């Protein structure tokens, strides 16, 4: 706020002129009465001298114009009362006429001299007052600039409060300055003070000022107030002020964005503060209001930034977990990731995921945080309410506890030993059934207010991952059962063909040949027919044996995978380089799958690849059987176009294995397969 200096006048004020006129009206009649009594003693020159002095006094008091009027009035009084003929303005003696004119001239001249002197003195006093006012205004503006610089620099409100208290006390010459904040309950909290102040009310203290204290009036009305007599005040604060010797106080409100925030109060041991003190304090209170508004704006901005950062981190964590779920990661991998991400997002000290078992107990599947020995993975617990995990496992709803001191079971005791003070838990629902829960805790006073919802967002992903894993497990089990049933059917058909139809055909062929040998040689035609029938029967038997081998090669069951693959390689139309580095027998369904994978690959290469050779390599580790099948054909094999590779992939996946096909156009085809030795 900028305050203006009072305008300077080159002449005396109207008040001075009025005082001069009033002086003339009083002094001249009194002087006339007195001289009338001394008419016989004083002669005319003496009388004129006394009137001249009276005119000078009027000139000193009221300046030139009242003095001139007094000179004219004095001349009239002299002519009427003291120059013959008396009581008549006419003057008969020429000497008296000259004397009166001389008096009037001297009186006017004296009025001019004395009036101008009085005017110069008045101007000098006005100049001195203006200089003092200018100095005071300069000091005030400098103080305001210093505070404004702090505000513009973004200083904290506490720093601005201290500066304002110091500057206001200095500018106003106060003996004590207080800044208080109005609290919601109506009490006032001291936030800054300088100079004399009661020791009973230190920084940070709270009290309720009572009228007629200026602070009480300001906090009640929101308008400036003053008090110049503390004798009528009765509260403890006023008693302390009186003990300090303060006699006058002024307070001004601090308004922040239209609301009353607090007040600034000053006190002095002098009789009273100047009349413009409230106005001068307003500039400082405006700066305080601006500083507080700026600080609140910055705090809101920082809060928004923190919320945006937190939201971004949470969304990133959810995306990471969702990516694992979409990629088909195992539930164990998803649970570990969720525990890690929840602990990071909520800045928790411990995060645990439990599975609800059929007997009502809970098994810890994953845990993140310190003291892994307290809740080891795989341990089983029966947490009891009011623990959040117990509530979530019993009700299927999110739960929160910010005071774990009431938890009385072993689980609660362990949490307290870890220093956990606040906890949140959310249920994990899988396809409509309660599967388990996730709980997180902190050593701080409490977790964020929205922690329940934020944890629940992750449990949805856990439920999806578990449901997907269950579906994949059911699908794989179904595939395995179908393939096992198909292989069993192949074996049964092969056995039935070998033990039934094939043996009967062999017996029939032997019977025909025996009949041919027993017929007389003169029946050559019959012998020829029997020979042709026997030959055709042998061909049918060979075809039947070939069919039986395709359904299920007997050599696989008799000699193992190595022998079966060597037989398969010899029967392939193109050269096959076979490298089998295992002679150990593995589970029957693994051998059957490996055989048919190689068989199907050899058949596809022979039919479509235009290859000149193939290489088949088999090796075995402790956990899996590896197959590598490569050719130098034209490449371009694509399972998506319906080739035999689809069947290979289904068989491999049904056993929990993996298959990779690389078939760039013009560069041959490579198939890499891994079959687990102990499939689920």
TrEMBL record:
Identify the Gene3D superfamilies for this entry: 1.20.5.1930, 3.30.450.40, Backbone structure of the membrane domain of e. Coli histidine kinase receptor kdpd, Histidine kinase-like ATPase, C-terminal domain
> Which controlled-vocabulary keywords does the entry list?
ATP-binding, Coiled coil, Kinase, Membrane, Nucleotide-binding, Phosphoprotein, Transferase, Transmembrane, Transmembrane helix, Two-component regulatory system
Q: Which InterPro entries match?
A: GAF, GAF-like_dom_sf, HATPase_C_sf, HATPase_dom, KdpD_sf, KdpD_TM, Sensor_HK_TwoCompSys, Sig_transdc_His_kin_sub3_dim/P
Tell me which stretches of the chain form a coiled coil.
Answer: 120-147, 294-321
The membrane topology term of the UniProt record is:
Multi-pass membrane protein
Major location (coarse): membrane
GAF domain residues = 156-302, 330-476
Does the UniProt entry include the keyword Glycoprotein? Answer: no
Transmembrane regions? 48-78, 98-118
Localization in the cell: Membrane
Q: Which CDD domains match?
A: HATPase_UhpB-NarQ-NarX-like (cd16917)
Quote the protein name from its UniProt record. Answer: histidine kinase
The protein's organism comes out as: Pseudonocardia aurantiaca
